[in-house]
């Protein structure tokens, strides 16, 4: 990408830099407040970006994404509450180190390794996006349809909860994308007589409902929750140079794991940090010390979860396939701003590609600076009373819905999907596959139907085209894997052993 | 964080999904294929409604079994869920949207009343929270109305 460095000049201006710092700070704050998530922040901010230029909008949203993943480490270390699901593993060693009187060191290690993880993934983002986009340019409709199928199966099988719940969530997401005009024939379908449904459910309204309203009601349910605060006012938040050298191997390994897991469609940062933490524990000479406040645990978790952000941006930019839930929302942001991520983006809007990559890299640095300087102050945000915060979030949800099409119908969609999201999470049905299904359904349907028109109704190209066959085989393999594992476990178990 | 999980939610969700699947199938049942198009507009909705309905039935049976065993589906965060508070907040939010839909009360008045009432409800009607809540209600109603209608040029009810 020879034009990437010259494109950095676009950031030497007031608004891009202001959006970069605003987005990163807002992301960190939201990540640091348990109950508020990056997905929620980005969906609520999306309507405000209607009034920005596309590059500025993407700078703001990408910075929020980076900030939100990192912000979670503050509460994970100081309160043993992961501010985001991605920082769950950080609590295992971060909190014990903090209560042993070294909260500044725990935070310093986490922030330093977050920067390294983010930048290492950034290198892959720079060098892998273009070749992958060139490969994706050769994709026909059958390749896209089978790639979407693989992404859906992958996220359904990896998500927490049962395989049935994951599949149900993904298919339900696709179902929600069905109402409105049929993309091929223009026929109206599944509107149930509601004129407002002619253009379908607005993606943003559904996302605001599922993430923000749902979260508000969960917070109301647990309004009495209190936390014990560790004071870090006089602590130095810094990772020493010798620590970087000592942890270099761990940082590199964890970042590579995070980047790779980020690239896989639909798997989030939490899986990245779990795998990296387990790997660090496995190679450690003292694995029994993990969970008691060791440096390696904090570094592995934070380097990996930040690396997943950069990794997940690769398939989003190169193929238009979201690597995580937040990437699915970013895909929606691209579409709202009149662009479609994928190979064509590199041809038609190369400037946006450079902006996204540079914004990601600069946001990692901004996150490091902001968190190093302001963590003690950010930690005080835990004291923001819920009775003040929650009504404000609901009003922002309503405003977000009204800003889309200026109609109350979208407000009702937000509330209805808030209830749906609430029920889904309480029923053990993961939200990740739902969002991926919702965003990918139109791409899958258009690809499948145009492919079938080209092949005169034959499904054979799914298995005769090599890439399509590979995606289908991976999807089938992923679907069968849990059953195979179950069968193997049953065979190994002695005949008289009781069921687990 | 693990959200609160309740056994009845799986039953409620899956029954809802089965109803929606049946409704979706019925609404596209009569849609045929095009001349050049082998699938037609109704094919994917039909396939999805059958799949979602089927999987929802499987999950419903699992949900009923779990409900009979009477254990929560997941470990919750420890504290007692505030059901009454959640129900009242939910009703208040629906009322807020309904009032703006009917058009009698504008965004400013409705939002001011909503933020203040919900804030007081969540703070257990503690009077000392009133100044902060009045400030928040003022900013979210009049301040945001000004921002959206004058700066961002978005019409609000």
What is the gist of this entry?
The complex is a heterodimer of chains A (500) and B (157). Chain A is mainly α and 500 residues long. Chain A contains 21 helices and two strands.
Measured as a percent range, the helix fraction of chain B is 55-70%
The end-to-end distance of chain B, rounded to whole angstroms, is: 36 Å
The gyration radius over C-alpha positions of chain B equals 23 Å
Question: Number of helical runs of chain A?
Answer: 21
Number of helices in the DSSP assignment of chain B: 5
Main sheet characteristics of chain A: 2 strands, antiparallel
Largest protein interface? A-B, 67 and 79 residues
Q: Give the beta-strand count of chain A.
A: 2
SSE arrangement of chain A, N to C: HHHHHHHHEEHHHHHHHHHHHHH
Strand order of the biggest β-sheet of chain A: 1-2
Low-confidence stretches of chain B: 72-77
Structural class of chain B: mainly alpha
Rg of chain A, please? 22 Å
Query: What is the 3D form of chain B?
Result: flat
Helix content of chain A: over 70%
Explain what the structure shows.
The complex is a heterodimer of chains A (500) and B (157). Chain A has 500 residues and is mainly α. Chain A has helices spanning 4-7, 14-32, 38-45, 54-79, 88-99, 103-136, 141-158, 163-176, 203-221, 241-246, 248-263, 269-283, 295-319, 325-336, 343-348, 350-379, 386-405, 408-426, 431-454, 461-464, 466-492, and strands at residues 180-181, 188-189. The longest helix of chain A is centred in the first third of the chain and has 34 residues, at 103-136. The radius of gyration of chain A is 22 Å and the shape is globular. In chain B, 68% of the residues lie in helices and 0% in strands. Chain B is built from five helices and no strands. In chain B, helix 3 packs antiparallel against helix 4 (107-122). Chain B is flat, with a radius of gyration of 23 Å. In chain B, 31% of the residues are buried. Chains A and B meet through helix 8, helix 9, helix 17, helix 18 and helix 19 of A and helix 1, helix 2, helix 3, helix 4 and helix 5 of B.
């Amino acid at each position: 990408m020879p034009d990437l460095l010259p494109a950095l000049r676009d950031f030497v201006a007031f608004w891009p830099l202001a959006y970069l710092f605003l987005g990163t700070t807002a992301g960190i704050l939201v990540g640091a407040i348990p109950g508020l998530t990056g997905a929620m922040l980005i969906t609520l901010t999306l309507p405000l970006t209607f009034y920005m230029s596309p590059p500025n909008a993407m700078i703001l949203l990408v910075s929020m994404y980076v900030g939100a993943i990192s912000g979670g480490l503050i509460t994970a270390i100081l309160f043993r509450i992961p501010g985001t699901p991605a920082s769950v593993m950080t609590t295992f060693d971060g909190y014990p180190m903090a209560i042993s009187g070294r909260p500044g060191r725990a935070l310093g290690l986490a922030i330093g390794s977050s920067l390294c993880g983010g930048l290492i993934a950034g290198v892959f983002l720079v060098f892998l996006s273009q070749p992958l986009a060139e490969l994706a340019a050769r994709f026909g409709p059958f390749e896209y349809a089978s790639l979407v199928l693989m992404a859906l199966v992958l996220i359904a099988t990896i998500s927490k909860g049962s395989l049935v719940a994951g599949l149900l969530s993904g298919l339900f997401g696709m179902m929600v994308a069905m109402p409105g005009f049929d993309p091929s024939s223009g026929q109206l379908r599944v509107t149930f007589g509601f004129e407002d449904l002619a253009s379908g459910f607005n993606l943003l309204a559904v996302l605001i409902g599922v993430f923000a309203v749902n979260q508000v009601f969960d917070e109301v349910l647990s309004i009495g929750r209190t936390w014990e605060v560790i004071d870090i006012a006089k602590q130095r938040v810094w990772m020493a140079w010798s620590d970087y050298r000592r942890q270099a191997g761990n940082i590199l390994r964890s970042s590579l794991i995070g980047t790779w897991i980020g690239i896989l469609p639909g798997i989030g940062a939490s899986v990245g940090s779990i795998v990296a933490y387990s790997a660090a524990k496995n190679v450690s000479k003292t694995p029994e010390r993990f969970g008691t406040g060791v440096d390696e645990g904090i570094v592995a978790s934070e380097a990996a979860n930040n690396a997943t952000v950069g990794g997940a941006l690769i398939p989003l930019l190169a193929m238009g396939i979201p690597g995580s839930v937040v990437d699915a929302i970013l895909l929606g942001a691209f579409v709202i701003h009149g662009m479609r991520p994928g190979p064509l983006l590199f041809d038609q809007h190369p400037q946006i590609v450079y902006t996204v990559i540079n914004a990601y890299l600069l946001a990692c640095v901004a996150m490091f600076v902001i968190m190093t300087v302001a963590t003690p102050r950010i930690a005080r945000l835990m004291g923001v009373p819920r009775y003040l915060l929650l009504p404000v979030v609901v009003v922002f949800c309503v405003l977000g819905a009204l800003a889309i099409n200026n109609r109350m119908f979208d407000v009702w969609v937000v509330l209805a999907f808030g209830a749906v999201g609430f029920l889904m999470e309480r029923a053990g049905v993961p939200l990740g596959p739902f969002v991926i299904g919702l965003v990918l359904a139109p791409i899958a349907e258009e690809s499948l139907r145009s492919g079938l028109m080209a092949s005169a109704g034959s499904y054979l190209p799914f298995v005769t085209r090599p890439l399509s066959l590979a995606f289908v085989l991976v999807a089938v393999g992923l679907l069968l894997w849990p059953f195979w594992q179950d069968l193997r476990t049953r065979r190994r178990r002695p005949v008289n052993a009781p069921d687990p | 964080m693990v959200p609160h999980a309740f056994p009845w939610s799986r039953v409620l969700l899956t029954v809802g999904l089965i109803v929606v699947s049946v409704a979706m199938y019925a609404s596209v049942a009569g849609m045929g294929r095009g001349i050049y198009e082998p699938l037609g507009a109704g094919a994917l909705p039909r396939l999805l409604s059958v799949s979602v309905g089927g999987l929802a039935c499987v999950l419903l049976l699992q949900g009923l079994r779990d409900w009979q065993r009477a254990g929560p589906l997941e470990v919750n965060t420890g504290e007692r869920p505030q059901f009454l508070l959640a129900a009242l907040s939910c009703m208040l939010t629906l009322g807020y949207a309904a009032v703006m839909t009917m058009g009698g009360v504008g965004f400013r008045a409705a939002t001011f009343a909503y933020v203040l009432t919900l804030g007081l409800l969540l703070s257990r009607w503690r009077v000392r929270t009133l100044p902060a809540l009045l400030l928040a209600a003022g900013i979210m109603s009049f301040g945001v109305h000004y921002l959206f209608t004058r700066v961002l040029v978005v019409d609000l009810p």
